[in-house]
Amino acid sequence: MLKLATERQDYFVLSRKAKRLSLPDGPEFRVALMGDVSTQHLAPLLQVLITDSGLRPVLYEAGFDTVELEALNPDSALYAFTPQLIVILQGTYKLRAAYCDYPGDRRQFASDRAAAIEATWKAIRSRTGAPILQSTFVLPYERPFGNYGLLMSDTLHGAVTELNQQIHRRARANEGVLLNDVDYLAAWHGRSQFIDEKLWALSKSLCSLQALPDVAQNIVDIGLACQGRAVKCVVLDLDNTLWGGVIGDDGIDGIELGDSDSSGAFRAFQQYLRELNRRGILLAVCSKNDEAVARHAFREHPGMVLKDEDISVFVANWEDKASNIRRIRDKLNIGLDSMVFLDDNPFERNLVRELLPEVLVPELPEDPALYVRAVSELNLFESASYSTLDAERSGKYRQQELRDQERTQFTDLDGYLTSLETRARVARFERSDLQRIAQLLQRSNQFNLTTRRHPEAECASMMQDDERCFPFTTTVRDRFGDFGLINVVILRHADSVVEIDTFVMSCRVLQRGVEQLAMNKVFRYAADVGARYVVGRYIPTAKNGMVRDFFERFGFDVWSDDSNEGIAYRLEVERYHPRRVHIAEVASFN
After folding, report:
1. N or C, fewer C-beta in 10 Å, the chain?
2. Global model pTM greater than 0.85
């Protein structure tokens, strides 16, 4: 994820930076590199890009073309390394040779190769919960039949196309497998610029040095998404960003939009933003404008693609945009580093960069027809998971607006909470929820006591471990709508102790009593299994300061204080006093 880049990363610049790199003291990010291509040119780039993201890179480079050997050997160096991400890079060069030497019906080549790749995934998944990042294969440039080859069923081009499609399908069916779409990068560069036959002959490199930084950045973007780094909100200027002209001067009929948008640039940009919104990215407005005038365009202009209901927070006034972005952040309860600010005005962009350096502020070209391309090129919206709750996120913030309005009618908190008629379902992990569970563990940074990022496959294993593990979720609704699955707690039981391994909650339900409800459940479970103590740990990060006194609020005592492992707490089960909550626990929402 490139914060302020206006041009593509340069291999030689990054290589020089790698030679004088000083590794940060932050948390480690352990990445294993495997493949039938060399990684010697790639590894230094990853070191730089991971360091630039604030993590401490620790890399393992497997031997050339040893993917299956490492995966199938339970004692291999791969598993001893304990990776947090396993990258498998496979190129078309070796695939071409295998295709040409294939002894059977070449129409079966793609299926056989896809099955072998999937078998490797399964071997890895059986020994580690680390996500696997599998590359796609770059389509070859040679076409022995010319364009007629598209009608043939047994060509290398067709085999690679089918193999990529099978990899897509099989990845969807295998938990913890993500895709690194190298073929997309090759198409973006142009395959003639991406493929470097001489470099392959000399060093078995996946691609040209010119394109290698984009491969590295793609890996880092996906890896950061697995670590909970994600853009959650796009903050939008209006005049000359969402439409042409200044609505305060030109009026609603004078702005360039709809039929008057001759190039269709602003309509295309709004369509792109609406698609982001539909996949769960929040949209906010931050404009120097009269709010009533600005909102009028969203409600009445026939050329507007985005509507009032697409905007989670609408701020239009004459104050500076940095202050208004802080207001938007507070309203949404998200971090500044999960926000992107898009504005056509260089002065406003530079102001926000200066005053809010955590916010991502890309350069926008002067021509609005290039807005979509400029934003897309930075790959700001990488994700390691997706659930139906993502698509519903904007609606949930609109529901929150109604709750806020309701709160103004009450003078006491108890009366307000009672009026919401909140219900909660507390349940052991269920397979249908695993994707959302893993997503909450990946993305939640503020109300997260340890920031342990358990991947989906590991959550599935815990779900099945009845003897040593009790992982549960809390799903919440009230009379205004459905919050969805917003709390994950993982308990581990050994002898007389129940350990709170993970306690994560969405900030959207702060001060609603959900954490008290969940802690009551923790101690009920501890009593049921005959435990004497419940223990937990707070590991401080740059973002989770809001829960630094979490255990103390429930009466826990400090057990040990280790600067590397955080603060450990302990409370005897019989000393816990259940908290009163204004939430009705239900078995189902039917």
Report:
1. C
2. no
